[in-house]
Amino acid sequence: MLALMVQTQVVAQTDELGYKTVNLSMGPSYQNQVFFNLTNENTKSQLANQWDIAFYRNSNMDMGIKVNDAKDIKVYQVSATPSAYDAVDLSQKSTWGESLYNPDLTNRIQEGAFDKATLLPQGQFNFGWGSYDMVTHKITGKVTFVLEYGDGSYYKFFINEFYGGYTFKYAKWNGSSWEATQTKTVANGSDDAFFNYFSFDSGEKVNNIEPTKNDWNFMLTRYYTFYNNIMMYRMSGIVQNPNIKVAKKQPETQASSTYSTPEQSDYSDIITSIGHSWKPTSGVHPDVVYYVKDASNYYRLYFTENGGTTTGNVSFKYKNITSELGVTDLGKKASFGVYPNPISNKKATILFDVKENSSNNGSAEIYDFSGKKVFETKLSKQNGLQQQDLNLSNLNTGTYLLKITYGGISETKKIIIK
Predict the structure, then answer these.
(1) pLDDT above 60: residue 153
(2) What are the DSSP calls for 58-124, one per residue?
(3) All residues at 6 or more sequence positions from 143 whose CB lies less than 8 Å from its CB, including other chains
(4) 226 lies in a domain?
(5) Which of 49, 125, 180, 187 could share a disulfide with 132, CB 3.0–4.6 Å?
(6) Picking from 141-155, 249-263, 305-319, 402-416, which range would have the lowest pLDDT averaged per residue?
(7) Residue 390, in any domain of the structure
(8) Nearest by Cα to 157 from 61, 229, 52, 278
């Protein structure tokens, strides 16, 4: 089954500060799911209700099963006895406990409601809905679930096993009894996507829901969150690709030619790092800015429109600031940048992204044009994005060479001190 979708390239306008304006729409009542790529401005939009279950397919050694929050599905765990599937009684709903939801505060995009089931004893061989079998090396299903939809319909659902794919069964409640059970298998396959998607209505896998894994950064979608620590509430917002990291700064002037980059500890791979934090109940927060790290590219981004449920319109401005940071790769081990350049007030910041551990710290050295070393400091060998401030008050104004060394590899960059 092919998904109904539209894939386009957004024609973004650029303002006087170099920021591109992007206008996207989830449509009235947030009926669409929209993917966006910061690098090439590609967007992919489609009806969000074309699937029910998403099966993580990116690895034969990892798994995850999610429900479609666009369909307002609540998941109940009925029993950890597999035979209970045949005797599911909706009149017993009050005994099933609280409903389960896809987690939103996670850095594992594959984690879903079924993986959060709690009826099995905690242990290294239990995985929410099933248990690892050391003989067959399969995850074998144990827990029976009931799915309650926002429109009042019900399905009972059981995952038989995971082994290079997922075998499962389901049946729909017709108002007086369960319809015939359908058993299906969705193999992981070779799609360049994080998930395989399945529709109960068609009884088939739905193709082309996602762009390829490296062709999107943000997904505008629906998801549940524990809103204001009061109740589970279905939001519309942004889920990020697990391959990027995001840092939020507030307060910060949005439309500005100057800015200070976040601390390393501020960057997060939580999939809702942006989420709905850019918007109050209406409009947008005027003092929130996001910094996005995608491989060796860095972006600065802020939101300008929130159309709400009436239109589903979302607008934001963003700019690739990699060249402003002067980011340079040090082979496979690290990349670095210095900001600002030219340097004002004799204060600069080095951004240093360690990709592979080294046995020694890195170093930053500054030379004048006679070849004399006039400044030196060590750089952390800790993995991840680091930020180190430089006090160059002892240096005269002029042009210098900044030499960064890490893992036996050196790169030199010209800097100007005003």
Answers:
(1) yes
(2) S-TT---EEE-GGGT-EEEEEESSGGGGGG--GGGGGGS-SPB---SS-S-TT--TGGG--SSPPST
(3) 77, 78, 79, 80, 114, 117, 119, 120, 128, 129, 130, 158, 159
(4) yes
(5) 125
(6) 402-416
(7) yes
(8) 52
**Amino acid present at 258:** T
* CA torsion, ordered 245, 212, 110, 141, to nearest 10 deg: -170
What CATH number is given to the structural domain containing 362? 2.60.40.3080
Length of the chain: 418
Share of the chain above pLDDT 70, in %: 92
Cα–Cα dist 209/169, whole Å = 22
Q: Do 370 and 223 reside in the same domain of the chain?
A: no
Residue 331 to residue 379: CA distance in whole angstroms: 17
Please check whether residue 10 lies inside any domain of the structure. Answer: no
Tokens standing for 323? Answer: 């060249």
CB atoms within 10 A of CB 199: 17
Reported as a single tens digit per residue, the pLDDT across 84-131 is 999 999 999 999 999 999 999 999 999 999 999 999 998 888 899 999
The total domain count for the chain is 2
Domain that residue 349 falls in: 334-417
Please give the DSSP secondary-structure letter assigned to residue 215: G
Least Cα distance to 256 among 222, 225, 228, 286 occurs for 286
Are 131 and 71 contained in the same domain?
Answer: yes
338 falls within a domain: yes
Per-residue b or e along 379-390, where b marks 16 or more CB atoms closer than 10 Å to that residue's CB: bebeeebbbbeb
What Rg value do the Cα atoms of the chain yield, rounded?
Answer: 25
Burial 25-36 (b: 16+ CB within 10 A, else e): bbbeebbbbbbb
Average pLDDT value for residue range 402-414: 81
The pLDDT of residue 49 is 96
Domain boundary among the residues 325, 353, 388 is at 325
Q: Over the stretch 42-75, which tens digit does the pLDDT of each residue have?
A: 999 999 999 999 999 988 888 999 999 999 999 9
What's the token pair of residue 257?
């030619």
Distance of alpha carbon 252 from alpha carbon 364, whole angstroms: 29
Choosing from 301, 325, 349, the residue where a domain stops is: 325
| Average pLDDT, rounded, for the chain | 90
Structure tokens at 272: 């809702």
